[in-house]
Design goal:
Layout: H1 3-13, E1 22-26, H2 31-47, E2 50-57, H3 64-78, E3 81-86, H4 89-96, H5 100-118, E4 123-125, H6 130-143, H7 147-150, E5 156-159, E6 162-165, H8 173-182, H9 199-214, H10 219-248, E7 250-252, E8 256-260, H11 261-265, H12 269-284, H13 292-303, E9 312-316, E10 320-325, E11 328-332, H14 334-339, E12 347-350, E13 355-357, E14 363-370, H15 375-379, E15 384-388, E16 396-399, E17 406-407, E18 416-417, H16 418-424, H17 429-432, E19 437-439, E20 445-448, E21 452-453, E22 465-472
Parallel strand pairs: 1-2, 1-4, 2-3, 4-6
Antiparallel strand pairs: 5-6, 7-8, 8-11, 9-10, 10-11, 12-16, 13-14, 14-22, 15-22, 16-19, 17-18, 19-20, 20-21
Helix pairs in contact: 2-8, 4-5, 6-9, 6-10, 10-12
Length: 477
């Protein structure tokens, strides 16, 4: 079977490409990416594909401009749209710090993502091959990595919702070079590939040849087979974590995720660590910038859950805040925090029955009416207060809590501080100043909206006129 047919088979096995997909190919001009371009150019008609190309000129060598022109010419000959950008990667590295390799990779990823989104592409296609994957396994092994890192480069990954696929991952570099020769392709060779200034180049040029010559001539194949096994087990364990997430996580407005700590305690730490990654990916799109230390902070929260301390905040990369409160571990992104930042005091006078929208987005409706026949049923609804209007001093005031506020919760003989009431009801701290209190002109708190009425204003079967108040959080009627 020739390389083209094997590539088609691999794409089918790994479900990388579908007919009529619109694809953005990353083409540098080297043997692997030029082979990628030629293969998908040949597949365009058969699979009804639409392909476009992106090339990044790193501005690191004098020849880089000529390489960019070469890629543009290759695309022009094939009638393929080619997008290019020139970025001074060394200058970017000096500004942000870190290695040149990491800076170049991050810039490539962000630009590929940008163009894929702008042009509504179904996937980004990369030319990584089996040799790249073997190098990555060794690189990650020496840095210290978990199963995901030891699985090397995956056939498909998700970057902020965009699939990045690698249809050549099953092929050796030498196979791709022979393919280029057979197709009369003349790839451009990046001279920096021969420099030993970079870790990956030293692995490629020094470590792998040494291991092949002294230990196993089939090292590349063995490392890829091992990576496949690790990836399968990693995928299985990740599936278990995702199942737990689906069953136990409460996702609020896409920007907050809550989990009950009691359910986490029994979960094996191996799956818990994967669960944290699933949560972060759901909120941020990736776990980039998160390391072992960050996940150990989350583990510590679960381990210390019985120390009865509540309301603790832990700040993680990406603007994520983790809060432990009342047996819940809550992950909030920066958008949620901005939306739910402290409001300060608010108050609104209500002189007659009306509808009122609060700064929180909550909505209240005030109605005066005769005692309904089903008043007992109505009075039990948490979003409805049914009060004896003849005992109420108008006008009313709708406000949030103040220091020293007290009321007599329905069913109690004495008064209680609002602060203590919220603690007993396990109301999270961020919610307490957002809950409206309905207060009459004699300064009695008639109702803590959504929770409890004051016992002194409760209705009886003999009540003739009632005040009915309905509460719709976030303006939802």
């Amino acid at each position: 079977m020739n390389l083209l047919e094997r590539c088609k088979e691999y794409c089918d096995e790994e479900k990388l490409i579908s007919p009529r997909d619109e694809l953005l190919l990353a083409v540098s001009g080297g043997p692997d990416s030029l082979a990628l371009l030629d293969i998908f150019d040949r597949l365009q008609e058969e699979w009804e594909l639409k392909i476009e190309v992106f090339h990044l000129d790193h501005a690191l060598r004098q020849s880089s401009a000529a390489e960019a022109e070469f890629v543009a010419d290759e695309c022009h000959k094939r009638g393929i749209e080619c997008w290019q950008e020139r970025i001074d990667v060394e200058e970017a590295r000096q500004k942000r710090g870190g290695s040149l390799e990491d800076t170049a990779r991050d810039i490539r990823l962000s630009l590929l993502y940008k163009y894929a989104r702008e042009h509504d592409m179904d996937a980004v296609v990369l030319g990584h091959h089996a040799d790249d994957r073997a190098e990555t396994v060794l690189f990650n092994l020496m840095r210290g990595a978990g199963m995901r890192g030891l699985g090397g480069i995956a056939p498909i990954t998700d970057f902020r919702g965009v699939p990045f696929v690698r249809p050549l991952l099953n092929f050796r570099k030498e196979e791709l070079e022979r393919y280029c020769q057979s197709r009369s392709l003349e790839p451009r060779i990046d001279s920096s590939n021969f420099s030993t200034d970079y870790d990956r180049n030293r692995i490629r040029q020094e470590l792998i040849p040494y291991l092949e010559n002294n230990f196993n001539p089939e090292l590349i194949s063995v490392l890829n087979s091992t990576a496949d096994l690790i990836r399968e087990e990693d995928r299985y364990l990740q599936g278990l974590a995702e199942d737990f997430f689906a069953a136990e996580a409460e996702v609020m407005d896409k920007h907050r995720i809550d989990l009950e700590i009691a359910s986490l305690v029994e979960l094996d730490p191996v799956l818990r660590r994967r669960l944290w990654r699933a949560v972060i990916r759901r909120l941020l799109g990736s776990t980039e910038g998160f390391y072992r230390d960050h996940f150990e902070i989350i583990e510590k929260i679960v381990e210390d859950h019985e120390d009865k301390r509540g309301g603790r905040d832990f700040h993680l990369p990406g603007g994520i805040t983790v809060r432990e409160e009342y047996g819940i571990i809550s992950f909030r992104d920066k958008f949620w925090q901005q939306k739910n930042q402290r409001l300060g005091e608010f108050s609104h006078v209500v002189s007659e029955p009306c509808e009122l929208e609060l700064p929180t987005g909550d909505f209240l409706r005030f109605q005066q009416k005769k005692l309904p026949d089903n008043w007992k049923e109505v009075a039990q609804k948490t979003n409805t207060a049914l009060l004896d209007n003849e005992k109420i001093s108008w006008p009313l005031l709708v406000r949030n809590r103040r220091d020293g506020d007290r009321f007599q919760p329905l069913g109690m003989s004495g008064t209680k501080k609002i602060k203590d009431f919220f603690i007993d009801e396990k109301v999270p701290g961020y919610k307490r100043e957002r809950i409206p209190l309905i207060v009459d002109s004699a300064d009695f708190i008639l109702w803590v909206a959504g929770f409890r009425c004051d016992d002194r204003f409760k209705i009886k079967s003999s009540t003739s006129e009632t005040l009915m108040i309905k509460y719709f959080p976030q303006g939802e009627e």
